[in-house]
Structure formats: structure tokens, C-alpha cells
Design a protein that fits this description.
Layout lengths: L3 E5 L5 H12 L2 E4 H11 L2 H12 L5 H10 L8 E4 L5 H11 L5 E6 L2 H9 L1 E3 L6 E3 L26 H14 L1 H9 L3 E5 L4 H12 L1
Helix pairs in contact: 1-9, 2-3, 6-7
Bound molecules: BIS(adenosine)-5'-pentaphosphate.
Length: 209
């Protein structure tokens, strides 16, 4: 499939499964969250503008995100996994205009809120967000160090419990029209995300094949 959209609450496993799809199926992963965090790390003009918004768990403005997204896309040469975009109905329409049509498929990761809080407060990542661990469900071999790159692992600023709860509220308030849109076009599949990482991956692969 050409371009996939992964939808799901914070912590539902989109980034984890994207990394597996990249490694095993050759997709290119584009995460608007990772792109925004890279701008914050660079202390770019955009990074300075969005830092506070992200740390509070709210959404960055659609205009800022779409500029960043477009600047990092090469649609002629890659099949993308869109992770974290679209977040609302306006972004879903914008993505259709960027792709000149609907994505091949949107996969919705379903999971209980209580599990999400536990997953996120125990998450540790490399600074670029590319390698994702969990202190409980997927710990690194050496505490605090990435198995792959040897970089130190950090906690994201927005993974503190109070911010996690705001992010979930934002998600719940914005996602339904996006799900309805994709569902109405036969583009939506639902995935049970409360299973082992390997089982989620095999279910995901069976849905996109
Ligand atoms: P973003 O970075 O996109 O975060 P998110 O969507 O909230 O999702 P997460 O990255 O938190 O979770 P995930 O589903 O990838 O889970 P993961 O695989 O890491 O957005 C952050 C912020 O940026 C937003 O709040 C907003 O401010 C801004 N932003 C981004 N995009 C935007 C946009 N389009 N418009 C406006 N603003 C935007 O897994 C989580 C944990 O669970 C890990 O520890 C992992 O090891 C573990 N885990 C994963 N799968 C399993 C499993 N099956 N079993 C057990 N543990 C598991």
C-alpha cells in the first residue's frame, strides 16, 4: 500500500509499530511530533513558538504543522506512514489535498485510557524519538541506554501524567470526525492495540497487505 495513516491516542503504539513497518516493509515514517521536537531541540523560530503548546499537551496550529510536514515530504519517491497527522478534520482534508486523494488506508489503534497513562509515564526514548522503550513492557538491555544507538534515553516533557491526561482529552475531542471521514470512504480499519507488540504488528501487516 502506498500511503498509510496511523491514528490512535497518545501511547497507543503508533511510533513503535511505525519503526517495525519501516524495518520490515520499507515504508518511510513521518511523525509530526518528532519533526516538531526536532525544531524545539534546534531552538529554531518555529521550535520556540511551539515549545510551550507542546509541553501543555495542546495541538500546535494547523498552519505551522502543515508547512513542516510539506517541507519533509517526497511523495514521488516514498511510501509514507503518517504518524500523528492528521489530528483533526481540517488536517485530514489538507492531507487529501497534499496526496491528491485519500491515503490507501487509515489504521486506528484502539486501547483503554488507563493503559495509555501507564505506557506513557514509563516510556523512554532517544532524543530524536526514533527508538522507543518502556520501563515495564520493553526495557533496554542496559538501563538508560539505547540498545541500537548507545544514546542516552530520556523522558519526553509531555509524558508527565498531568500532560498525558490533557493530550488524551484533546485526542478525544478532535478525532471522531477524522474517523467518520475515513470510515465513510471505506478507508478505516480498527486494530486492537492492547496485545503484545508482535501480535499488534502481525495484525497490522495482515490489514495492510
Ligand atoms: P506525538 O509525538 O504525535 O505524540 P502522540 O500522538 O501523542 O503519540 P505518542 O508518540 O505519545 O504515542 P505512540 O502512539 O507513538 O506510542 P509509542 O509507540 O511511543 O505528538 C506530541 C505533540 O506534538 C502533540 O501533543 C501536539 O502538541 C504536537 N503535534 C504532533 N502532531 C501534531 C499535529 N498533526 N497537529 C498539531 N499538533 C501536533 O508507545 C508508547 C509506549 O508504549 C512506549 O513506551 C512503548 O514501548 C509502549 N508500547 C507500545 N506498544 C506496546 C504494546 N503493544 N504493549 C506494551 N507496550 C507497548
Amino acid at each position: 500500500m502506498k500511503n498509510l495513516v496511523l491514528l490512535g491516542a497518545p501511547g497507543s503504539g503508533k511510533g513503535t509499530q511505525s519503526a517495525k513497518l519501516v524495518a520490515e516493509k520499507g515504508y518511510t515514517h513521518i511523525s509530526t511530533g518528532n519533526l516538531l521536537r526536532a525544531e524545539i531541540a534546534k531552538e529554531s523560530e518555529l521550535g520556540i513558538k511551539v515549545k510551550e503548546v507542546m509541553e501543555s499537551g495542546q495541538l500546535v496550529s494547523d498552519d505551522l504543522v502543515v508547512e513542516l510536514l510539506k517541507a519533509n515530504l517526497d511523495l514521488d519517491n516514498s511510501a509514507y506512514i503518517f504518524d500523528g497527522y492528521p489530528r483533526n478534520i481540517e488536517q485530514a482534508k489538507t492531507l487529501n489535498s497534499i496526496l491528491e486523494g485519500y491515503p490507501s488506508l487509515a489504521v486506528y489503534f484502539e486501547l483503554d485510557t488507563d493503559k495509555l497513562v501507564e505506557r506513557l509515564t514509563n516510556r523512554r526514548v532517544t532524543k530524536d524519538g526514533k527508538h522507543i522503550y518502556n520501563l515495564v513492557t520493553n526495557p533496554p538491555k542496559v538501563s538508560g541506554v539505547c540498545d541500537v544507538s548507545g544514546e542516552p534515553l530520556v523522558q519526553r516533557d509531555d509524558d508527565k501524567e498531568e500532560v498525558v491526561r490533557s493530550r488524551m482529552e484533546v485526542f478525544e475531542n478532535t478525532i471522531n470526525p477524522v474517523l467518520d471521514l475515513y470510515e465513510s470512504k471505506g478507508k478505516l480499519v480498527r486494530l486492537q492495540a492492547d496485545q503484545s507488540m508482535d501480535k499488534v504488528f502481525s495484525d497490522l501487516v495482515s490489514k495492510i497487505n
